[in-house]
Write a structure and sequence with these properties.
There is one protein chain. This protein is of the alpha/beta class and 378 residues long. The protein is 43% helix and 23% strand. The protein has 16 helices and 16 strands. Strands 1, 2, 3, 4, 5, 6, 7, 8, 9 and 10 form a ten-stranded mixed sheet that branches. A six-stranded parallel sheet has the order 13-12-11-14-15-16, sandwiched between helices.
């Protein structure tokens, strides 16, 4: 089967193909996995210029994204010439076009009549966002989404929202699958610990924005309780943005015992996250809402034992991981109890079980099989 993967946006700050592949690694890793199960794959990717090259067994065609078509207030821009997208799909003789993201209308508008006239199937994967609230914009969205035959969601609750809104037709398939998988395989824990300068045990890793939704303060209060039982524990916090950094520093300044065992790593390179997760015993997250959680999936691939707030996406991603512990949103005591209960077990054995479960249920070969089965069913 010929499959086209369409990612119609890119960040203007990316100035090379190498950086493009690093930033949008999910597109390229999924393409490789689909090639491995027997599909002929072409990636159509927004970029600063037009070019063609091969990557991970797939053909890549980049199409210019208009510098004036910014998505929201970000530096991300969208392809402006969808006629060129349709030409590329026609040349490829695609059976299925898969669109990354469900909030931008233009890809679906462009594909609507094309799919109806050619019989080419269109699928989409959810990467955050909500159905439009404005009645006219929702009508536009519903009309454009007539072309979507199947949509992939990281948890059932998101699929239900889009179905009940009427955006997705009753005939469209909804498939529950991870939003992304992990490009990591893990590094030897001893090497990772040395590289991260680990001085205590157990090690807890936290990753996210220092934002209220990620709730770093429940993590800090929970960790304070963990120290009552494990005074040599360490909490390593990597954060992409620093909205609440002054408040976090004030919290730590008022608790010297906690501050001595917490390291604020700030923003670190994506590749370095593999070292962090390989050095940690636990991955902890306290979010009140997550669409898919790249960090959790990456941590699982490195063998981190998950201790997480009880939200749908976390529940779904860890449903096949017996060691996973969940606590109520904002419950720092539940956070600490989850860590304490797991510490009575063999952490190395649990870590190995986590990695095995990741490979069996959440890895790219597994995701590609799920996508492939859906494509074949259409």
């Amino acid at each position: 089967m010929k499959v086209c993967l369409l990612n119609s946006v890119y960040d203007q700050q990316i100035d090379s193909v190498a950086r493009l592949q690093k930033q949008y690694w999910h597109v390229f890793y999924l393409a490789e996995a689909l090639v491995d199960v027997g599909h002929d794959v072409e990636i159509i990717q927004a970029f600063q210029d037009s070019r063609q090259f091969d990557c991970r067994g797939a053909r890549v065609t980049t199409i210019v994204a208009n510098a004036h078509s910014a998505v929201g207030n970000s530096t991300t821009v969208e392809i402006s010439d969808f006629a060129e997208v349709l030409k590329t799909i026609a040349r490829a003789q695609a059976n299925v076009v898969h669109v990354f993201g469900m909030t931008l209308l233009q890809p679906f508008r462009a594909l609507l009549h094309w799919s109806e006239s050619t019989g080419c199937k269109v699928t989409a994967s959810f990467h955050g966002g909500y159905p439009r609230r404005n009645p006219f914009r929702r009508w536009q969205q519903k009309r454009a989404f007539r072309c979507v035959s199947a949509a992939f969601f990281p948890a059932k609750s998101f699929a239900v929202r889009w179905q009940e809104s009427g955006i997705l037709s009753a005939a469209a398939h909804t498939v529950i699958a991870p939003e992304v998988c992990s490009p990591f395989v893990g590094v030897p824990p001893a090497r990772a610990s040395a590289e991260m300068g680990i001085k205590g045990q157990p090690v807890l890793a936290w990753s996210g924005r220092l934002h209220a939704n990620k709730d770093p303060f429940t993590a800090l209060r929970g960790f304070e309780r963990v120290l009552d039982q494990s005074p040599n524990a360490e909490l390593l916090m990597a954060f992409q943005t620093s909205e609440n950094l002054p408040a976090v520093r004030n919290f730590l300044a008022s608790r010297p015992k906690v501050a001595d065992r917490v390291r604020l790593l700030g923003k670190i390179e994506h590749a370095q996250m593999e070292v962090l997760f390989s050095a940690a015993n636990f991955f902890v997250a306290c979010s009140s809402r997550e669409f898919g959680s790249n960090a959790l999936v990456e941590a699982l691939s490195c063998g981190c034992i998950p201790v997480l707030s009880d939200i749908p996406s976390f529940r779904h991603l860890t449903q096949n991981i017996p060691a996973a512990r969940h606590f109520n949103i904002g419950d720092d005591r539940g956070f600490a109890n989850g860590i304490a209960g797991l510490q009575r077990k063999n952490l190395d054995a649990l870590s190995s079980d986590v990695k095995s479960a990741y490979r069996e249920y959440l890895s790219y070969p597994v995701l590609a099989q799920r996508y492939s089965a859906t494509f074949e069913s259409l």
